[in-house]
Amino acid sequence: xxxxxxxxxxxxxxxxxxxxxxxxxxxxxxxxxxxxxxxxxxxxxxxxxxxxxxxxxxxxxxxxxxxxxxxxxxxxxxxxxxxxxxxxxxxxxxxxxxxxxxxxxxxxxxxxxxxxxxxxxxxxxxxxxxxxxxxxxxxxxxxxxxxxxxxxxxxxxxxxxxxxxxxxxxxxxxxxxxxxxxxxxxxxxxxxxxxxxxxxxxxxxxxxxxxxxxxxxxxxxxxxxxxxxxxxxxxxxxxxxxxxxxxxxxxxxxxxxxxxxxxxxxxxxxxxxxxxxxxxxxxxxxxxxxxxxxxxxxxxxxxxxxxxxxxxxxxxxxxxxxxxxxxxxxxxxxxxxxxxxxxxxxxxxxxxxxxxxxxxx
Length: 361
Prior knowledge:
21 strands, eight-stranded mixed beta sheet, globular, mainly beta, eight-stranded antiparallel beta sheet
């Protein structure tokens, strides 16, 4: 359907969490050995000679926050939209709040969008993906928690806990959090008031979440769309969810920042920035968030030799107080949003390959 294959089966041992045997669930380009029956609707059903696929409209966030996904497309707290290609193998600060931060390594990637039938059109994208995530948190007792998660090794996350931020690296407690390679599974570690949760949803997706009492930072490893054509290439998608209701304590004393965190600016205005053009059969991404972010992309770069570093121009990690960004100074397109919608449940990233039927992979 629209160049993608949708399969449902009888919920074998590889089905997602909570699926009862005998019920149907759906995946894109389903892989792995299945037991029982399977029904597929594939690209053979597509009419001859469809036009090259264009990126579908992004689904609205499901809870108050922000997200980043795919060839990275950002969705802010208020539904703000902008693309950010990043420089090759550069680490950027996605989110920075008091005692909680998320950095990400961007890497170049070439992938295709389109069906597998002989007459299906193909779009080639020369872009980038988020490949590694670096979480850092400081607990209420002053301990420092670091978590590293790699798109291509999604069954594990590396956890390091140190008594304080300055402690020598070799003195830190280190362990690997591991889950099943394909079956639903989960593991959680609690360090004072910080929780680290690694969960395999099904064979195609694993996610790690780090949370304190104010925010949850979640990063999921997923296949790039049209997985078979793209040799099961993986990417990381990030979602940031505030855990306190709007107006809690008259708002945070330290307003978040970072490429995505700055959209948590306390107003009811979305600011859209630069978006890449996907109208041609060959796409080269170039947008770097122009118009939607304070400063320029280089202001968010983090030392790649220390990817957990919280040092960048707009860092909030060690601050006692900080104001929101100067949204009025941004050159992007402004959209007034409903006050209720202004407290969307999550912000984050979405890819060009997100299906109009939802994220099925």
